[in-house]
Amino acid sequence: MNYNRNTTHLCQAIFVLVIAGLFIIPGSASMTNESYKEMRHTMNVDGSTIYVDDDNTAGPWEGTAEYPYQFIMDGITYATAGDIVYVFSGIYNEHVDVFVSITLVGENKDTTIIDTEGSGTVVRITAEGVTLSGFTITRGGSYPNDAGVMIHTQYNIITENNIQQNSYFGIYVLGGNNTIYHNNILENTYQAFDVTAGSIWDSGYPTGGNYWSDYTGTDENEDGIGEIPYPTGNSSADQYPLIHPYGSVLNENTEEIFLTIQGAISDSDTQDGHVIIVKNGEYWEHVSIHKSLLLQGEDRHETIIDGRDTGDVVSICASNVFLQGFLIQHSGVEEQNAGVVVIGKNCSIVSNILYDNFQGMILKHSAEDATIAHNEIMNNGWNGITLKSGCKGALIFENTISDNFYAGIGISGASNNYIYHNTFQTNRYQAYDDATNVWDDGYPSGGNCWNDYTGSDANGDGIGDTPYTIPDGINTDRYPLMAPYTSEDTIPPAVKILSPQNGLYLRGLRLFPWLFRQRTLLIGDITIEVDASDAQSGIEKVEFYIDNVDQPQFTDNQTPYSWTWTHGSLLKHKHTIIVVAYDYAGNPSLDMIDVRRFL
User: Fold this and answer.
1) 358 vs 61: CA distance, rounded Å
2) Same domain assignment for residues 457 and 511
3) Which domain holds residue 119?
4) How far is 257 from 280, CA to CA, in rounded Å?
5) Does an H or E element contain 32, and which?
6) pTM score, two decimals?
7) Tell me: the pLDDT tens digits for 461-513?
8) Same domain flag for 150 and 265
């Protein structure tokens, strides 16, 4: 490492860059990211990058990518002004004092953790012109002079950190002219205090400020920024507090971060085929998807899009959209309002929850070849799913559609759609259909499970023996399921011994069945014939046993299933024939018959 640098010249350059950065207000969150990266690159023109990794416990410790320092303070100690100290993901249990004008950056703010385990200040900045970014800074001490981040100087930039669960201050600022934005400041005893009220706590509008876990403001215009500033002490404030933790909405292809879902969709850098990732949280938005995107929520129980009882919550206007992993709720209360409205072609709505909307989902006349699968559609004010006249080619399968006020699925004038393997529970009307559609997947795959179906299943194949009638037309579910469909085969196969049955068998020839109605007598060899079937995964094998199931006498893997029992016993005449069928999921089922055999 070269220690003979003109540090005075570099510090002056850094000072000029930081001052200029304070007066440049980017136009969007993505612009801020790019500006910040460019700034870091500029600062490092004449500097070095020093690496730190807590996994390098054995050394050597040279500060290189191959041989990084083990501790952050070692990286800082050997740095000079203008250097970048890059810290790989890990847990660093140390007190960090940044006493030189450097960029201290973590690999990932969620996985690069500085944790003092409840003692002292975690990160103390005593030099000017420091940039701190990319860390979780946590568990500072509980005394009034303790903080997650304590800034003694000016012209520093604190951005894109998680500052959380510190026992006294999250951030304590003694110097002025610092810029603090896009941090997630979470569950500290006192979130922040600006002693001189001379620092800037945001990056302007629409880029925004920080996310504060105790912020109670609202976002009526759905821009991801609260209307009311967040106070940071001594009349200073974050003028543009974020509604969601920074980093909640990400374009996976461009790596740009956005404050809202709609912001990510509408951004000019977002193109057809891109993936938008949305982390857990409650997003008060009306989302219009007008590009062919994959919109992916983190968890469909925790990633919530809430329409606040107005309009449509999600409108899919483009074709080839994939929507997955959201709880979509609280549309407007007009007949045309829904949690999801599909207008485009070849769209997929998969693994979502549509709850407490007026209509759960509406497929408009132009919505061709949609895939609606693995959703929970419940407690909506009218229909769970409505298909409008002209909608065609929809595949609606493996959804749970329950407790909707009027119908589970309502179809008016929309033909050539396919509805199967869904579970309908306690809707006022499970379904109605005045057009021509297919309500099952044939036999043995089956149709839908209807909790008001009253038919029986005599052969135990999991499918009702009589069709389920769909009101308002000529449609029926020909193969209604006796239990909710599951892609995991948990239903045992059906198996029955066809031969022998009651009667006298002479070398396989059945005689006098009317005379031997309660008994089966065998004389000589007999071919045991079995019928076995499975509605889901199919039959893997049928095993044949005599008297016990310790060891099969024969295993048959092909239909028709049979085995010829050739060797009887001279002394023992009473036997039990046992057959066990296994499906490909490993579910067994058996049938047996008691016989008497001679010869």
Assistant:
1) 63
2) no
3) 7-238
4) 15
5) helix 29-43
6) 0.79
7) 899 999 999 999 999 999 999 999 987 788 889 999 999 998 899 988 988 88
8) no
